[in-house]
TrEMBL record:
<keyword id="KW-0175">Coiled coil</keyword>
<protein>
    <recommendedName>
        <fullName>Phage protein</fullName>
    </recommendedName>
</protein>
<feature type="coiled-coil region">
    <location>
        <begin position="9"/>
        <end position="43"/>
    </location>
</feature>
Amino acid sequence: MNAKTKFHVSVMDARLKKMREERDSFEKQRNELLNDMKETKFKAELFDELLNSFSDNLLIYGALAKSLVDRYEINKDLESEE
């Protein structure tokens, strides 16, 4: 192997090393992005459950509050008639 060939081989090795480093960097970024996406999906599902639970409870407590207000108004009307 002559000097020119050795030089070309060393240049190709350097390029290959750089490409492998870039590949590893991209793979790491991809894995981090996938983990972030999983975490975001998990948090979105928890938020949806919380929101549904809150809205269900709001309907229940809203109906209870309305019935209490109605009872109060009926009692108030009865007291004013006496």
